[in-house]
Write a structure and sequence with these properties.
Blueprint (H helix, E strand, L loop, with lengths): L13 H34 L17 E7 L6 H8 L9 E7 L5 H14 L4 E5 L6 H10 L6 E4 L10 H5 L8 E10 L6 H24 L10 E4 H6 L10 H11 L3 E12 L5 H28 L4 H11 L4 H19 L5 H14 L1 H14 L11 H10 L1 H13 L32 H21 L6 H40 L1
Parallel strand pairs: 1-2, 1-4, 2-3, 5-7
Antiparallel strand pairs: 4-6, 5-6
Helix pairs in contact: 1-6, 1-11, 1-12, 1-13, 6-13, 6-14, 8-9, 9-10, 9-15, 11-15, 11-16, 14-17, 16-17
């Protein structure tokens, strides 16, 4: 590392610069997003005092509310969802519950019967089934508005367990006629299911604990998260309604509404439990949809935002918020360049490491740990230190998303449209899922094989780093090896478990039939 034997002997050639310039340019771009994480930490501590703990004013008479429950093939969680929703503490004559079901499997007849039973018992619930998925979730929500009786709509995805006092705690924020959205904080039913769910909890806590508070507290634009929140119907109409030209219809509507002058409120003290994907395939499906959708929103909305009369700080934060997923294809390019760059930099001495590498790493990769550990310390002040042990897994999980999310981002940039892919939900807590009952089996596809190849490429880089005494690179490279191998082999293992469970189930069925 500190050997200057070749100083003055090897001179950089044009080919060397052709490797080094794009490599460090990518690191600078990644550092920009890293510095933004530090800014979010600063914004959190500055802005948290600006969030009201209670609604500033209250309704004298409660407004009518429509609760919308968009579904698509959610057989495992729909019963739990509806059972909890009908317990909402709100006057029944002011409440309408819409089950918006686009299901194509047995969820449809099962849910229709379930809703009929609750309706016969006197609950204000109704069932809507579409024979097509036009517009996917956005289309279902927009269709539901045609028969909505509420001035305010509350939206919940199928895996959420809604507290009985949820509406009473949040509705009074709408006493201010300028408020268009109230978003609450997600919590998680299966945090401790496995390492992947532990990591997802930390990732999402960073968003809900730091980012939302920093943006809302500073008066910057932030997004409705598509569930566990309430929206004013007049705001939805004024902003142009639910639109389905992006896969994140919630972020799309959020920015269009805030450009129209509507205020968004964030309530971090109101929690709504949900379920996390416990397998790598489900995690990648969810994150791919979010990455592609947010990039689609950036293409669609940034021209409008930049042309608007919003302050420069609002515009700059919108750029930072809508474009971070560009980091995934940049990471792929950097991965391809890393080995040749390591060879070139072997001759450049220790000065570059001190004055270039370390500052760039601090701005880009070290910011990740700082961001998520601060969020955990604020949320769990007595137990946050256990999150330190999850930081390597968290970074490896980010690597595991690189290939799938890079593909999603590139599809968004070139305008390639894909269907809304649901995230599998199983009504799981911390108990292991019985896979033999899973009718939503995933397909492996090509991705795990490419992930194995990518992991093996980084194994070669680790070998070279050892041979060239570049030991400081080993922890960084090991995250890539671990991330890609984790993504690939965990999917192979889950697929194997599914197949074994199905074979056992079929064998038992044959034996019972004899």
């Amino acid at each position: 590392m500190f050997d200057d034997t070749f100083a003055g002997v090897h001179k950089l050639a044009p080919f060397d610069y052709a490797l080094l310039i794009p490599y460090f340019a990518i690191l600078i771009v990644l550092s920009f997003f890293g510095m933004h994480r530090y800014e979010m930490i600063r914004g959190y501590f500055k802005g948290r005092k600006n969030l009201p703990s209670q609604p500033p004013s209250r309704f004298e008479e409660l407004p009518p509310i429509t609760v919308q429950l968009p579904l698509f093939n959610e057989r495992f969680v729909v019963e739990r969802l509806i059972e909890q929703i009908v317990k909402l503490d709100y006057p029944k004559h002011l409440l309408q519950i819409q089950v918006l079901d686009d299901s194509t499997d047995e969820t449809h007849p099962f849910t229709e019967r379930l809703v009929a039973e609750y309706r016969a018992a006197g609950h204000p619930i109704e069932y809507h089934h579409r024979t097509n998925r036009h517009g996917f979730k956005a289309g279902a929500l927009q269709e539901g508005l045609k028969s909505a009786t509420g001035e305010i709509v509350a939206v919940f995805d199928a895996d959420f367990i809604v507290p009985e006092d949820f509406l009473k705690k949040t509705v009074h924020y709408f006493a201010d006629p300028k408020v268009g959205v109230v978003q609450t904080r997600w919590t998680y039913l299966n945090t401790h299911y496995n390492t992947l769910t532990e990591v997802q909890t930390i990732l999402l806590d960073g968003h809900f604990v730091l980012e939302h508070v920093a943006r809302a507290g500073a008066g910057l634009f932030f997004n409705f998260n598509g569930t566990a929140g309430l929206l004013r119907v007049k705001m939805i109409e004024d902003a142009g309604g639910w639109q389905h030209d992006t896969l994140t219809e919630d972020s799309d509507l959020s920015y269009r509404a805030q450009l129209k002058g509507w205020r968004f409120m964030y309530c971090p003290d109101v929690e709504c439990p949900s379920e996390l994907p416990f397998d790598m395939h489900g995690f990648q499906v969810q994150q791919t949809r979010w990455s592609k959708g947010l990039t689609q929103c950036a293409k669609k909305l940034l021209p409008m935002i930049l042309k608007s009369d919003q302050p420069w700080r609002v515009k700059l934060e919108a750029i930072c918020h809508l474009t971070p997923n560009i980091a995934y294809p940049l990471m792929l390019i950097m991965s391809a360049l890393m080995l040749p760059v390591m060879i070139v930099r072997f001759y450049m001495g220790w000065m570059q490491m001190v004055f270039v590498d370390i500052p760039l790493m601090a701005a880009s990769f070290w910011s990740i740990s700082a961001f998520y550990l601060v969020a955990q310390k604020q949320l769990h002040p007595t137990t946050w230190k256990r999150s330190i042990w999850h930081m390597p897994a968290l970074m490896a999980a980010g690597v595991a998303l690189t290939l799938s999310n890079a593909k999603a981002v590139m599809e968004a940039l070139i305008g390639y449209q894909t269907a809304f892919a649901r995230t599998p939900k199983y009504a799981v807590g911390d108990k292991k899922v019985k896979l033999g009952n899973d009718r939503y089996k995933s397909r492996l596809g090509w991705l795990p094989y490419v992930e194995i190849a990518a992991g093996s490429w980084f194994v070669l880089m680790m070998v070279y780093a050892i041979e060239s005494y570049n030991f400081l690179a080993l922890p960084f490279l090991s995250l890539f090896v671990g991330g890609y191998y984790w993504a690939a082999f965990s999917k192979f293992w889950f697929d194997y478990q599914q197949r074994m469970a199905w074979q056992k189930q079929r064998q038992l069925a044959l034996e019972s039939a004899r």
